[in-house]
Predict the structure.
Amino acid sequence: MKISDLKPGTGNANIEGEITAVDEPRDVVTKFGKKTRVANAKIKDASGDITLTLWGDDIDKVSIGDTVQIENGWVSEFKSEKQISAGKYGKITVAK
């Protein structure tokens, strides 16, 4: 699947792309009262780019220039911008 094909509300999205930016992590409290870290990154492929929301340990897995695969991702929209997250059931893998 290409990044340009992603639409908000899409589940089970599988993409591969290069990390072009990673924001500083910030601490948040989830709706279940659990404290965790979250950071936004940009991921691009030949068709475009999208914000990748990284939660918890996934933040430390990626660096600028890494090629990553997102399996079973969830696409949403925040402030009129599409974003993808591995979510509860997805997986982020850094290609070696």
User: Anything to note?
Assistant: Residues 3-94 form a domain with the OB fold (Dihydrolipoamide Acetyltransferase, E2P) fold (CATH 2.40.50.140). The mean pLDDT is 93.
